[in-house]
Amino acid sequence: IVISKSGGTPETQNALAVVQAALSAADLALAPRAVSISCFESALDKRASIEQWTERFWMEDWVGGRTSLFSAVGLLPAALQGACVDTLLAGAREMDHATRSAVQKNPALELAHAWYTLGSGKGERAMVVLPYRDQLVLFSRYLQQLVMESLGKCHNRDGEVVHQGLAVYGNKGSTDQHAFVQQLRDGRNDFFVVFIESLDDGSGLASSVAVDQGGHTAGDYLQGFLYGTREALTEAQRPSITITVPTIDEKILGALIALFERAVGFYAEMININAYHQPGVEEERKLTLLDLTIRSEAFHRFL
């Protein structure tokens, strides 16, 4: 699966060149094994058409990469991994409806308001994401791009220099949180935590096998670790938010993604910035290409 909105993303082109070289070394053709996801008639889409790749999927030009999970960009890989994309979309649809409701009952607006209040409207505290389920091990990395690329802006919509942003990091609780929980408890008080709790500890041995003489399961311990960590941070006057869901499945995942997408949009309105462009990323890519051009010219000049 080759994904590039513009069709010219260097990282995608580089990975495709490496894959194509590996296929050629094995005397295999790319076209029968490749599908593209890009804007209609982009450079990638045209190449896939000319070379007759297996399939071409299109995305709208106004959809940014970080908000494209509910397009072919996210749905095709999810389907190939066995996920029910209809259920994923159903969860997102329900959250979309819930976040268009009255202010007092709007979960995305409440979440955005909490971010604004805890960070004084200036991102003064980082957001540490701690989901307590293995299925969400990559969720904090997804939120890192969604939040930081959307909210990290030099100018507001009036052209004023504001240097806004909201730093995001995190990992899966409880095993992976030990990398930084010591600092959260005893170090700088410059963050807030978002705990994601699942009331269902999943099926299988983790929820059925007793791991101690008291009859507790691994799932019991996982929930205990969450409550213990939260209590320890509260005692140290470290603020936190807890999002509780009944289980982790495609529907809940779709709802969580939609919740944070809408919260980012609301927060951007509160601080008067455009959440849906990325001038800093575009400038970095321009400078990268300029650097490569200078290197190439220097190489040929002294060759």
Which labels suit this protein?
303 residues; alpha/beta; three-stranded parallel beta sheet; globular
Content of β-strand: 5-15%
Our Rg estimate from Cα atoms comes to: 22 Å
Major beta sheet, specifics? Answer: 4 strands, parallel
Write down the oligomeric state.
single chain
The percentage helix is 40-55%
Order of H and E elements: EHEHEHHHEHEEEHEHEHH
Number of strand elements: 9
Q: Which structural class fits the helix and strand makeup?
A: alpha/beta
Residue stretches low in confidence (pLDDT < 50, at least 5 long) are none
Number of helices: 10
Shape: globular
User: What separation lies between the terminal Cα atoms?
Assistant: 38 Å
Structure description:
By secondary structure, the chain is an alpha/beta fold. It contains ten helices and nine strands. It has helices spanning 10-25, 43-50, 72-80, 85-98, 107-118, 139-151, 181-186, 218-235, 250-271, 279-302, and strands at 2-3, 35-38, 55-58, 126-131, 153-155, 161-164, 168-170, 191-198, 240-245. It has a four-stranded parallel sheet with strand order 7-4-8-9, sandwiched between helices. A three-stranded parallel sheet has the order 1-2-3, with helices on one face. A two-stranded antiparallel ribbon has the order 5-6. α4 (85-98) runs parallel beside α9 (250-271), α5 crosses α9 and α6 (139-151) runs parallel beside α9 (250-271). It is globular, with a radius of gyration of 22 Å.
